[in-house]
Predict the structure.
Amino acid sequence: MPGVTHWHNPHFHAYFPTGNSYPAILADMLSDAIGCIGFNWSASPACTELEIVMMDWLAKMLKLPKHFIVSEGGAGGGVIQGTASEATLVALLSARTKQIKMIKSGNIDVDDCTVMSKLVAYTSDQAHSSVERAGLIGCVKMRSVPSDDKFSLRGDALREAITKDRAMGFTPFFVTATLGTTPSCAFDNLKEISEVCKEEDVWLHVDAAYAGSAFICPEFRYLLDGIQDVQSFNFNPHKWLRVNFDCSALWIKNRTDIIDAFNVDPLYLKHENQDKVTDFRHWQIPLGRRFRSLKLWFVFRLFGVQQLQENIRKQVQLAHEFEELVRKDPRFQIVTEVIMGLVCFRLKGSNEINEKLLKNTNDDARIHITPSKLRDTYILRFAVTADSTRSEHVEYAWDVIQSLATQVQMENGSVENCDNPIN
């Protein structure tokens, strides 16, 4: 189709996956046909109740702590947001409200603006831009903490930043840890960070937008070590769990924290059961909400956990196949460890020659990839995104990249063949 980028084409290797499947499409059609605006329980009880059940199912698939699971008697629970950007903002605003109330409880004369001027949030220098944007919208300072040589945020670096801010009279209140960063799919050290946040009494939010789906596979759950001390956790089933956009899963450790931040209760929204049931309008920024839990229900019932696991494992294996192809060509280098379905690589030499390779690849239009920068080094990202991608598509993509690399080197007048270390 003219003017349309086909994200589900097996030759599309840009960004991260966007989920899609027959049952998810049917569920979205049914949601549109039902047409409910599920802002509170009474507006459509099934819309609320199914979401609670599906978020519990999903939490159990990931083996999340019981305090996130309503059916296990947890004090928290899950809610579907539109995007990970919304989830991060909701978590930050909840943490901000909690911190302001705590400070004012000990000093009733202090005003909100004075408290907010001292609040500081923290994240890695590899975090998604939406984290910085959440700080802007929330009107709080956002510190970017340097990551280590594997682009992972570590506990010592976070502790040092918090200590410095406390010495200057600021109030640390919120940390975002990323599991699967956008530039390179790096993983912050959640165990170390959670220990620091617990010591400092700081809200810890986890953004696992892309990689979170992989945690339904036992072999990847080691990356969740420390999750028991997290206040909020988010990932996007609409990226890698065969659920089409939009469907972003957010869990809160204590539901009171999010309700206190967003509870506005005019008479026209009240109903006789509101003290007995969940009203998700208090768990999000918008008032209205679609029947998005239908997508989770249809996908889970048709595919089951095993098929969803197999799909993720297949895409990770395809990424490793591409990694091996890159390693066999001495002109190229693998830049970061390949853990999920993303391979970060580059043609040895200058940033400029890699920029030219990227431009020529996308202008050629047989495949599509995207770039990133790690420190000051320009890299190329190859993501396995489509469910229809097979080994032959990976090999085809590599053939295209190799041939275009040869052309770029010839145009450049020399074959650059030196490693470019990333500091």
Remarks:
- The chain has a mean pLDDT of 92.
